[in-house]
Amino acid sequence: MGIIEKIKEIEAEMARTQKNKATEYHLGQLKAKIAKLRTQLLEPPKGSSGAGEGFEVTKYGHGRVALIGFPSVGKSTLLTMLTGTHSEAASYEFTTLTCIPGIIHYNDTKIQLLDLPGIIEGASEGKGRGRQVIAVSKSSDIVLMVLDASKSEGHRQILTKELEAVGLRLNKRPPQIYFKRKKTGGISFNSTAPLTHVDEKLCYQILHEYKIHNAELLFREDATVDDLIDVIEGNRKYMKCIYVYNKIDVIGIDDVDKLARQPNSVVISCNLKLNLDRLLARMWEDMGLVRVYTKPQGQQPDFTDPVVLSTDRGGCTVEDFCNHIHRSLVKDVKYVLVWGTSARHYPQHCGLSHVLQDEDVVQIVKKKEKDDGGGRGRFKSHSTAPARISDREKKAPLKT
């Protein structure tokens, strides 16, 4: 029996099992088994060279956005509208067969947009090269899930389910659970919040399912069984996702209003070029890019070429800003002067731990090189004169 058949068999057993207090331990074990099997499914098969054909393209720019959706929902048209890169669009499904990159120039930054082939139900199991498509989306900073506004709402649930099956968690934050494997000492279980979804016995059963008998486990919030399994697996990616409803020109205004009011949703029409500017603004807001302008001493700030930082790529502190310019700059920094929204007054003297905000201006003041001879003038500890008399410069004779 293959891995996919085992997963389907366990899913069928979970569907048959009633959910109550008596069966929650059994259901928790089944969830752990499914998670283990899905992790095995993502691993490359043994004996393979690993040099298969993928969709991965070189990272470029200050951020990366992936377009995911069913075939023929307008992903290629959206890429062409936003970037100017031509991606073939036609009236039949699976027009795009590989990853096509484009660059969005927005607010003095470059954002890479990837047009991926359409995925279908069962993509997490490898149908329609779905696994390669989802692997590329894992390497992006944000996901745009393109949906057809005229189709049913079920498409959104299907895509979310497929992405969650391969370890992508959309619009969620990592659970506040501390987990550490140990060599000896058994399982240490603690919680700083009242737990309503799991208890100590269920946690022990799930850990034993993973053959973990020595570990430290601390719950800082009321987490579920799925959260605990995600922490134990350790390969989950938590990403922001914007649900983009295309083709709003073919539905009524009441339906458009209903879709637009849903959380993390933007309604657009590529055909009539409607609301594309709002999509770009929302994308910029969710990516959290921070532009920092440099100011040389005694000169005007350079507003042409900002240094772009982000929380996901390195951080937004002054130290990260210095590392972005040059690795050796941090040890030479005495202090920095900051103008902008992160400063309390202009200019503010800041250290390396100061967090910068968008459109701040930074001037770096470096440490002065120390003189080898302590003191100045006649208070010098030793003379700077040449060691040999013959090396001294002879002064011109005084005029009398």
From TrEMBL:
Gene3D superfamilies per record: 3.10.20.30, 6.10.140.1070
UniProt cross-references to SUPFAM superfamilies, sorted A to Z: P-loop containing nucleoside triphosphate hydrolases, TGS-like
Gene Ontology MF terms in the entry: GTP binding; GTPase activity
Listed Pfam families: MMR_HSR1, MMR_HSR1_Xtn, TGS
NCBIfam families named among the record's database cross-references: small_GTP
Protein name per UniProt: Uncharacterized protein
